[in-house]
Amino acid sequence: MTAANSDLRAGEQIADLPASSDASVYFLGRLRTPWSERSQCPRRGDAETGPLCRVELDPRWREALAGLHRLRHLEILYWMHLARRDLVMQNPKSRGELFGTFALRSPMRPNPISSSVVTLVSIEAEGLVVRGLDCIDGTPLIDIKPMHCPMWPEHQDAVGRL
Amino acid sequence: MTAANSDLRAGEQIADLPASSDASVYFLGRLRTPWSERSQCPRRGDAETGPLCRVELDPRWREALAGLHRLRHLEILYWMHLARRDLVMQNPKSRGELFGTFALRSPMRPNPISSSVVTLVSIEAEGLVVRGLDCIDGTPLIDIKPMHCPMWPEHQDAVGRL
C-alpha cells in the first residue's frame, strides 16, 4: 500500500519495507459490522456489550466450523487492509506520546493483522454472529480460533484441551 | 505447501485451496526456542514456567520495540511454516474425535498463524527474551503486540489504553 508521508504525525518514523514478502494469506470471508468508516469504529470491541456483527465465511471453509458450538469465546484474526505497514514509531492521538509499533495494538504494523476476542452468539449457514468486533464493514477475515487466555483460569477450564 | 494425503488421519477432510492468495506477509525475524523438531514442542507454551526463548528481530524493525519495557505480557504472532493449509476437519491425536479446523488451535489452518501469550523477561539489542513460546526453533515471527485479554481485569489496568 502506498501511503502519503504528509499523513505522518509529529515524531512518527517509517522503515523501508522489504523488497519482497515471505508468505501469502488467503482471505476466508468478510466481517460485517455497523461501521462503514474507520472514524466510526470503536477503539476496542466489547465482547459483552458490543453490537451484533457477522463473520461471513466463504463456502470453501464452512465445514471447518464443526464443533464451534462448544465454545463461548473466540479469537478472530483479520487483515487491516486500509492500514499503512511502514510505521515503526507512532504518535497515537489518544496518548500524546511516541511509541514503537510493537508497544501498540494499532492497526498500522508491518503485518496488519488484528485479533479480537468475541463472544459467539450463534452459528448460521453462512458463518457466525458475534459480539466484540471493532473494524469497518467488509474487513477481510483470516482466522477463527478458540480463545486462549492463560491468565483467566475459568476460561482455561471451559476450553479444556482444545 | 504440498502435503501428502497419505498423512491424513481417519476422518480428516481437506478443501481445495484458492487458486490465488489475497495479501502478503513479511517475516520480521525468527523465534529461537529449545526445540528443533515439532515432536519436541510442548502442546502449549507456559508464560510463567516455560523455558527462556528469544525473539530475534530484523534490524529494520528494532526501533519499533520502543516503549515495550512498560509491558509484562505480550502477544506474539508467528507463521507455522511447516503446517499444511488445506485441512477443514481434523482428528487431533489427543482427542479421539473430529473437529473443524476453526474449533482447534492446531497449527494446520488456511492461514497458519499462531498466537502465544508470553511474559517479557528482558529487552536486548537484537530482540526480546520471553517465556511462553511453544514452536520449533527458527519459526518466522510476524507480529508483537501488547497482550489484551478482556476477561482479565488486572491486565486491562496494566496495559491501560495502549
TrEMBL record, chains A, B:
A Gene Ontology biological process term: methylation
Keywords assigned: Methyltransferase, S-adenosyl-L-methionine, Transferase
One term of GO molecular function: methyltransferase activity
Keyword Transferase applies: yes
Domain TsaA-like: residue ranges: 25-156
Family designation: Belongs to the tRNA methyltransferase O family.
The name this protein goes by in its record: SAM-dependent methyltransferase
